[in-house]
TrEMBL record:
This is Rhomboid family intramembrane serine protease. Its main location: membrane. Belongs to the peptidase S54 family. It is found in: Membrane. It comes from Cellulomonas chengniuliangii. GO terms for biological process: proteolysis. The chain crosses the membrane at residues 79-98, 123-145, 157-177, 183-205, 212-230, 236-254, 261-283. GO terms for molecular function: peptidase activity. It holds the Pfam family Rhomboid. It is a multi-pass membrane protein. Gene3D superfamilies: Rhomboid-like. Keywords: Hydrolase, Membrane, Protease, Transmembrane, Transmembrane helix. Residues 114-251 form the Peptidase S54 rhomboid domain. InterPro entries: Peptidase_S54_rhomboid_dom, Rhomboid-like_sf, Rhomboid_protease_S54.
Length: 285
């Protein structure tokens, strides 16, 4: 080699860079697609790592995990249960500070025909004479709500709760007489909805082959209290219990391949039935 001649230079080598972050060199490659993936885009797999794109593509092709009754398997808080509790608590506070709040939303048979929303709104009110009414109902809701919400999924659980609440008011309507004070007495409380959950969880436990004696004892005690303690709307308990048990049976025993169709059909059918029974009762009152 003659003096002054520069040494040969190797051709540049392309460095492996992350497709999502071209400014980052990575010698780690995705086990699925083989592309380089930087630490931010790496996801630990059973063997090696995968990139976020392959993980997302695989998630789309996989069927979501389901519970024994077809509800989506979710992690985290029972959102619907917490929402219902929050509404009841907020409404209870409004009852204390907003004049006329209770009378505006409470249910009584004589006014239900003109203001049918009271069939539902009364379930989010409670007695203002103390905290025990709302406290007992919210404890009961928290006892069974998360369990049913997890098994059934948020949509069916919300339908179960709301229709049981309406069923409680319909029970009060059916067992009241226009010639008695019961036709004009206001009714408040989430008891109808809670009893609907009791009825549903009783059926669900039997469907899954689990011990339901605890729920039976709770139901028996509450039924006795409803008849013994004054100023308790046992009619709402029975109405909610009947609706909840019927819906719970339909949801629990629906064929696995037809759960969605059965769930929608039974929910709509129950709503139509409650409306029809209510209309017939007012026509014959």
């Amino acid at each position: 080699m003659s003096a002054g001649t520069p040494p040969p230079v190797d051709p540049p080598v392309d460095l492996p860079v992350c497709p999502r972050h071209p400014d980052r060199v990575s010698y780690v490659r995705c086990q699925r697609c083989g592309r380089p993936t930087c630490p931010e885009c790496q996801r630990q797999a059973a063997v090696g790592v995968q990139c976020v794109d392959c993980v997302a593509a695989a998630a789309k092709t996989q069927r979501p995990a389901r519970t024994a009754l077809g509800g989506p398997l979710r992690q985290g808080r029972p959102v619907v249960t917490i929402t219902f509790i929050a509404i009841c608590v907020a409404s209870f506070v409004a009852q204390q500070v907003v004049p006329g709040w209770t009378s505006r939303w409470a249910f009584a048979p004589f006014i239900g025909e003109q203001e049918p929303w009271r069939f539902l709104t009364s379930a989010f009110l409670h007695s203002t004479g103390g905290v025990f009414h709302i406290l007992f109902n919210m404890i009961a809701l928290w006892m069974v709500g998360p369990y049913l919400e997890g098994l059934l999924g948020r949509a069916r659980f919300a339908a179960l709760y709301l229709l049981s609440a309406v069923g409680g008011s319909v029970g009060v309507l059916l067992l009241a007489s226009p010639e008695s004070l019961s036709w004009y007495s206001g009714v408040v409380g989430a008891s109808g909805a809670v009893f609907g959950l009791f009825g549903a969880v009783l059926v669900v436990l039997r469907r899954l082959g689990r011990d339901a004696r605890g729920i039976l004892v709770i139901l028996a005690l509450n039924v006795v209290i409803g008849f013994v303690v004054p100023q308790i709307a046992w009619q709402a308990h029975l109405g909610g219990l009947a609706v909840g048990a019927a819906l719970g049976a339909a949801y629990a025993y629906a064929p696995a391949r037809r759960r969605k169709e059965v769930g929608i059909g039974v929910t709509v059918g129950m709503a139509v039935l409650l409306v029809a029974v209510t209309a017939l009762r007012y026509l014959t009152a």
